[in-house]
Structure formats: structure tokens, C-alpha cells
């Protein structure tokens, strides 16, 4: 597809500036040896010209219908993309991140859509069992978790022109380069592992397949992911998407109308969780505290993407909740064979598809076992 040439030829990270302490977020002592940092990144990346326009929830309802049509993206009903920019667009962003630990292997964590880096380090009472960052530091790793641009502590960007898949991939590629040379890291990263959840899993796979990052990545782990888009429709419809600034003006009033969020806590429960395998208060936390809007430009640009999975050479582990709605339509048994078959260049491919969880694996009761499966995989790769 068009995106392959966009990503492989034109996503250029310009000379990097070092990781800098975020002066707007005072560092406080934390048991995981964590600190908040700000990472300035300058990129030159082509943009898709996306024709979608969102002004209110009526427009969102129409968009949801279009995105969930059976023939969406096909010749009968193509993506809302009219072309690409004539040349790469130069942009500078500030990426807000949390850097923890002292290990020589660094895990770079990319969160999903409708989320922030809090997914990896939740802060509800009793969340220690769901804290991937804490578990990873205890296992001996350094961890960089970051907010994707447009989200949380990172730069607020235009929902159509900046918040696009290929831009997010280039940001992740720049983080890989930064973490190996960053003067502020306690120990320079000698090995780098990418871990992505949901939308972040697609970003992780695309970065691992790219010329920019392929040779700098030693392993990747993907969750909330089956490699295709067949089951996006129930996820998007079930989210009951709304304009974020209208839904919560005090929190998101400064965003443009192209940033969308879920309708309520019950929508979050449907798209993220499996009844009996999580605590309902966690779904409430997800909606009230852990959620972040996503930008309209992120989905068309992803769906226009041909991620070349065969170009991934690092060992890959895919870890799935059995009841994941967006990845597998609510039943992941036997659903990972296709993506496994596409990873023909990877040194190792391992899949787990039977954990008792929905889409947000880390926030289910099974999380500690899932974390140990991931660390065991990394140890067996010498990481």
C-alpha cells in the first residue's frame, strides 16, 4: 500500500536532542527509581490528506457507522484519504515519559488507543499486581513508558494532520535511538525491547519492521493484537464514541473536536474487560482516570498501512487475553495463526492466546502471570 513507501522512504528523525528532565513535572522519589522526563523530537514525515471532518457527536456517529461498515476500506467504500503531502512535513514534539530502573536492557512501552502510559503503571488502590513497570524493574530491566503524541503529558497535536500512524511510528523509532545514547539514563541501554499494547502493538510492529529501527531492536512483545482489523467493528461500535472536549470540558476542553473518547464506564467495560476476570472498580478507574482521547487521524492512517511483518527479524511474543473483543472478536482461541505465519523473518515467534482476560490484559486479575510469561520469554532470548 501507499503507506509502505511513506514509512520506509521518508520518515526521517533529525539530529536528536538529549533526554531532558521535565521541569514542569517535579521529580519525586519513587521506589522503582522512576523519574518524569521530556523528550524533544524533530521529525520529517509525509502526511496523509484525510477528508474526515468532526464538529460534534452527530459527526462522530456518522464516522462510527462508516468505520464499521462491512465494506469499509474496499473499492466500494474507500478510506477517507485523498492523497499525501507533496513533501515530508517537519515537526517538533515533546514526548512525556517515565524512565525507571537501572538495567542494561531497556523496555520501551507503547500504550493503546484511548489510553495513556498509566496503562503500564496504574495508580488505583491495590494496583501493585497490575503495575507492569514495577514488575519489570524488579525483574532487572530499565523501563521507558511514554505518552504518544496528542496524549497525556506529550505535545497536543492536530487530530487530523499530526496524529497519524506513520508519525507515531517515527516517534517510536526516535525513542529507540535516544534511549541507546541518552545521557540522563542511569545505564545506557545495551539491549532494547519494544512492548506494545493494542494500537501500540501495531506501532511496535511497524517500528520493528522499519529500516529506521530494525537493527536496534532485540525483541518485541505484542498484546491486545492479532495482526488484522477484522474485529475492529464491535470495538468501535461498543465504545460509543463522543467528542472528548464536549464530554469532559474541564479535562479536555483545549483539544480540537477530532479527539474522541468513550461514552461511559460501561462502554469501557465492554471493550476492555471480561466479566469475572477483573474488578469493576478497575473499569471505573479506566474511564475516570486512565483513559485519554484518541485522534480521528489515527485510524484511517493505520488502516492505510501495510506493515511488512516479514521484515521483523527480532524474536516476537504475542500474549493475548482469550476474550479480547478488538483483536479476536471476543474469542482468541485459534486466532493467532495468521499473524504467526506472517512473521517469517523473526528469529523466534511465540504466542499465548488463552489467558482469562479481555483486551486490557494488564488490568485483569491474571496480570502477574502474564507479566511472568513475558519476562520468561525475554530471559530465554538472553535479555
Which helices and strands appear, and what pairs or packs with what?
Elements: H1 2-10, E1 12-13, E2 20-21, E3 34-45, E4 48-50, H2 57-67, E5 81-84, E6 89-100, E7 105-110, H3 132-138, E8 142-146, H4 165-181, E9 191-197, H5 199-209, E10 219-223, H6 232-239, E11 242-243, H7 244-247, H8 249-252, E12 259-261, H9 265-272, H10 280-290, E13 294-295, H11 298-303, E14 316-321, H12 325-328, H13 337-342, E15 349-355, H14 367-380
Parallel strand pairs: 7-8, 7-9, 9-10, 10-14, 14-15
Antiparallel strand pairs: 1-3, 2-3, 3-6, 4-5, 6-8, 11-12, 12-13
Helix pairs in contact: 4-5, 6-9, 9-10
Keywords: Signal
InterPro entries: AB_hydrolase_1, AB_hydrolase_fold
Family: Belongs to the peptidase S33 family. ABHD4/ABHD5 subfamily.
Report on the structure:
This protein has 383 residues and is α/β, with parallel strands linked by helices. It has a domain at 2-49 and 85-230 and 309-380: Rossmann fold (3-Layer(aba) Sandwich), CATH 3.40.50. Helices cover 31% and strands 20% of the residues. It contains 14 helices and 15 strands. The chain has helices spanning 2-10, 57-67, 132-138, 165-181, 199-209, 232-239, 244-247, 249-252, 265-272, 280-290, 298-303, 325-328, 337-342, 367-380; strands spanning 12-13, 20-21, 34-45, 48-50, 81-84, 89-100, 105-110, 142-146, 191-197, 219-223, 242-243, 259-261, 294-295, 316-321, 349-355. Strands 1, 2, 3, 6, 7, 8, 9, 10, 14 and 15 form a ten-stranded mixed sheet that branches. α3 (132-138) links the parallel β7 and β8 (142-146). α9 (265-272) crosses α10 (280-290). The two termini are 34 Å apart.
